[in-house]
Amino acid sequence: MDCYTANWNPLGDSAFYRKYELYSMDWDLKEDLRDCLVAAAPYGGPIALLRNPWRKEKAASVRPVLEIYSASGMPLATLMWKSGPVVSLGWSAEEELLCVQEDGVVLVYGLHGDFRRHFSMGNEVLQNRVLDARIFHTEFGSGVAILTGAHRFTLSANVSDLKLRRMPEVPGLQGAPSCWTTLCRDRVAHILLAVGPDLYLLDHAACSPVTLPGLAAGVSSFLQMAVSFTSRHLAVFTDTGYIWMGTASFKEKLCEFNCNIRAPPKQMVWCSRPRSKERAVVVAWERRLMVVGDAPESIQFVLDEDSYLVPELDGVRIFSRTTHEFLHEVPVASEEIFKIASMAPGALLLEAQKEYEKESQKADEYLREIQELGQLPQAVQQCIEAAGHEHWPDMQKSLLRAASFGKCFLDRFPPDSFVRMCQDLRILNAIRDYHIGIPLTYSQYKQLTIQVLLDRLVLRRLYPLAIQICEYLRLPEVQGVSRILAHWACYKVQQKDVSDEDVARAINQKLGDTPGVSYSDIAARAYGCGRTELAIKLLEYEPRSGEQVPLLLKMKRSKLALSKAIESGDTDLGEQGLVFTVLLHLKNELNRGDFFMTLRNQPMALSLYRQFCKHQELETLKDLYNQDDNHQELGSFHIRASYTTEEHVEGRVAALQKAAEAFNKAKNDFAAKATEDQMRLLRLQRCLEDELGGRFLDLSVHDTVTTLILGGQNKRAEQVARDFRIPDKRLWWLKLTALADLEDWEELEKFSKSKKSPIGYLPFVEICMKQHNKYEAKKYASRVGPEQKVKALLLVGDVAQAADVAIEHRNEAEMSLVLSHCTGATDGVTADKIQRARAQAQKK
């Protein structure tokens, strides 16, 4: 353990810092890093180098080369730069490379050098050119800040949702600031800049002077600034050689260190660990690296070659032409276990396990010492935690073996933390491999989350490893394997050297019916790559027709889309209906004749379109019936048109005439005759309105007759009845009802005596009683036939006479009916009379 701490460097009394090698770089750089524009993404991300940037001493004919490498130096992409001069490079949170040009245009490239998009930072930037630029990260995404030749700042806090903000002018700024940086405070991006001995903070509304609390006197200029990874702390390097460290709110000073070097550093970045009370800054010059904090002494390293610093969540990555290293504060658990002469429970447990492997009795002594202090659970937890922070697998195994050894002597130690750490370390060791080149630490991995890590493996096209991790962690298929296979398929369709048939077959064989995979999404990617036939083949594997149709329409395969929509069964007439959507698309795309011919071949679609036309496009519906020689439906169309679209009688009659002709062609004699009768009725009603006034139009024949009777036009009513062959029984009913409504009892009596009633006289009784006229009703009750006599007498309230008639008829049903109408003492005699008649009938 003493040897293990050989690379530990103390910073004061409370913290140690160590630097270890991540990779031996084998990227064969032809130029020094100082001659390149460099950008490295955090969380073990890729490195971008733009060789031969626009420098006066370089030949104008030499084209720059943009190269992208993994963190281990494995080449990912190389492309000749054919655009304008680049001022700055930077990586977004999604690992897209942002290249800020001198004209303010930002080009966005993927991890493999594929061009994604571009955007401009505005006309003012274009006119004044870009002097300097920064790519920064906020909780909203990745932003770009620009310093123009007019010494004004423009920024966008999120390049995915571009909203440019022109920052206020800085008073007295005649040249470029000595240093500047972006700062995120209160969810708003600010710019902090130095002008001589003064600091200014810019937001969207104002330029505010800033004073650093406790800053040493004599500062005439600020040479470098650095904001911590979490944007909570700020460090500035002054021309006096002092480094001031404090909070980003400018309210508190943490410390101030005199490094005795006045030359401006190449880089200055924060190096701090989450939840650590220690704060340190790493400063780099040409050949010197210095770690300073709240301690009188610093840690210094000699740099043998040009190096570049990459701030991380829990440390700093340092890479050069030959090596890639990681500098960080030693975690507490590791410090407790490995520091010299440590008696921490984790240190004793590690020694106990080593002695146990040697079969030494000292193992028991160490173990007893831990148990006597009751610190065995703490010792196991310390070893598990320390294993997570170790980079080398051998030391991870040693610490986990110690933890496993200690667990054996505990009754109820939960295994979750141990199992989870084993899983996490297996994943971390896999992605740290040289060929993968993602040197995440345990803290970075937990901050990044497994889903983001899987996304980054997919971006690097490391599909097998991503799938193995999903299967190892037993992630749900929709979140894990299915999602990765979908990404693989989207990449597969971009391989244009493979035939459409082979690509479609390979994708189907690999994906099958995997849940969560959408073949339509893959087909859309194929179509976006210009492979329409491949997209159609892939859509054949999509089980949901609703997913096939939109893309088929987009690809101008409307007839195929119509077939798929009909197969789906989604025949809703609303805008969301699938077949309806395709029909409207076809209507706009094809000429009228071709559209109708297409519908003829699809009966369901034709039926649906007819329903639509009935509500929206009547003329189109008529054209459809004409083209199909559907005379029956054409006749019905004209009938509806006569009532819905025509206002004048002449127009309605003309529409009915067309309907009658259509029905004759359809050999529907009944419909044709009924239509002709309606035409006669309309003409008659028009004449009646002209002669008599009142309203007759649109009444039925019966209502027309009734209206005439009510108007005293009995002869006209009878004439209409004869003309339209209304049966006598129906006419009598109509006249009876109308005269009763008029209460013209005299005319009603004359009418009843005009000839023998074809409907009998019981209706007369009923109608009179309905009008509450018992007197008139009794007149007709005596004329009612024997079979209905009892009912008529009961209607007029003559129960006694009804009883006599029922007894005379000897009809059991009639006697029961009379009995049901007998109420109280008044009808008691009648009831007894019926009962006696019943008894006599039963004796016989």
What does this structure look like?
36% of the residues are buried. The chain is elongated and about 135 Å long. A hairpin with a 5-residue loop joins strand 19 (222-227) and strand 20. Helices cover 45% and strands 19% of the residues. A five-stranded antiparallel beta sheet has the order 1-2-29-28-27, with no helix packed on it. It has a four-stranded antiparallel beta sheet with strand order 3-4-5-6, with no helix packed on it. By secondary structure, the protein is an alpha+beta fold. The mean pLDDT is 84. It is a peripheral membrane protein.
Q: What is the rounded Rg?
A: 49 Å
Specify the oligomeric state. single chain
Helix percent reads 40-55%
Q: Note the total helix count.
A: 33
Extract low-pLDDT stretches.
none
Largest sheet: 5 strands, antiparallel
- Termini Cα gap: 130 Å
Please state the structural category: alpha+beta
- In what order do the strands lie side by side in the largest sheet? 1-2-29-28-27
What gross morphology would you assign?
Answer: elongated
Domain Vps16 N-terminal: 4-420
Function: Plays a role in vesicle-mediated protein trafficking to lysosomal compartments including the endocytic membrane transport and autophagic pathways. Believed to act as a core component of the putative HOPS and CORVET endosomal tethering complexes.
Protein name: Vacuolar protein sorting-associated protein 16 homolog
Family: Belongs to the VPS16 family.
Characteristics:
single chain; five-stranded antiparallel beta sheet; 33 helices; 19% strand; 844 residues; endosome; Vacuolar protein sorting-associated protein 16 homolog; alpha+beta; lysosome; four-stranded antiparallel beta sheet; protein transport; 45% helix
